[in-house]
Amino acid sequence: MYRYPPDFGGFSAGVHYAWDQESWGGSVRVESPSSIRYEGGISGCDEHFRWELASMVGHHWHLPYEEAEGGMPLSLERRENPLGRVVNVEDGLDSKYRIQGGQVCQIERRFKDLRFSINIQQRDFTEDGRTLPIHFSVVYWSVDGGRLVRTDIYRDGYKKIEGIYIPLSRRIITADDSGSTTRQILFRDHRLLGEGAGRKAG
User: Fold this and answer.
1) Is 81 exposed, middle or buried (0-12, 13-18, 19+ CB in 10 A)?
2) For 114, what's the count of Cα atoms within 13 Å in the CB-facing half-sphere?
3) N or C: which end of the chain has fewer CB within 10 A?
4) Prediction pTM value
5) How far apart are CA 156 and CA 121, in angstroms?
6) Could you give the CA distance from residue 120 to residue 107 in angstroms, rounded to a whole number?
7) What single DSSP character describes residue 82?
């Protein structure tokens, strides 16, 4: 999967955030997944907005393989299904990666009282063959009883700036017992931070 280079310093951008019929605008400065500063009035949506933005950059932030899954015990299951074979990761979250054709097609994890499955439907490829998931779903079940809790359907977009793929958009359609809702994040006027400060793509 695509990750940012080790010296990536983050980015700043204008942002438009919509939740069904409501929308807000502002600007954001991202220096790391845990350092996100936002200016604008998104009020009660602030927690969700920061969660999604931290997820968008956090899954691509530089992290050597040896410090991630490569540093944990792995085991390969013999049986497979149409999405490939399972690699079990002993990470305390009961993580499973289903691999097919050298690509991760499905990720399963357990967190607190939920189990979830990330299913990748479509991806883009960078020039060096790494992948950017652009269409995927996340399905949640309760650990006790296995009840289906909700499904999130994602569509992501990226913008290439000075060879670095920066978030351009994210749309999330959520379906649960209360109905469905749609949220969208759109970025514009990106600027790279750190060594890339001053370089801009509109």
Assistant:
1) exposed
2) 11
3) C
4) 0.88
5) 12
6) 9
7) T
Question: And the tokens for 110?
Answer: 């357990």
**Cα 110 from Cα 105, distance rounded (Å):** 17
Three-state secondary-structure class, residue 192: strand
**pLDDT per position as a tens digit, 46-78:** 788 889 999 999 999 998 888 777 788 999 999
- Rounded CA-CA distance 201/114 in Å is 40
Q: Are 15 and 28 in contact (CB under 8 A)?
A: yes
What gap in Å lies between CA 37 and CA 28, rounded to an integer? 6
DSSP structural state of residue 33: T
- Token match 């009660």: residue? 44
Tokens 């604008």 correspond to: 40
Q: What is the DSSP letter of 55?
A: H
- Three-state SS for 129? coil
Integer angstrom CA distances of residue 169 from 20, 157, 177 = 16, 5, 27
Contact, 95 vs 89, CB < 8 A?
A: yes
pLDDT digit string, tens, across residues 87-139: 999 988 899 999 999 899 999 999 899 999 999 999 999 998 899 999 999 99
* Element spanning 48, H or E: helix 46-58
Reference 74, options 96, 93, 94, 89; nearest CA is 89
> Residue 59: CB partners within 8 Å, gap ≥ 6?
1
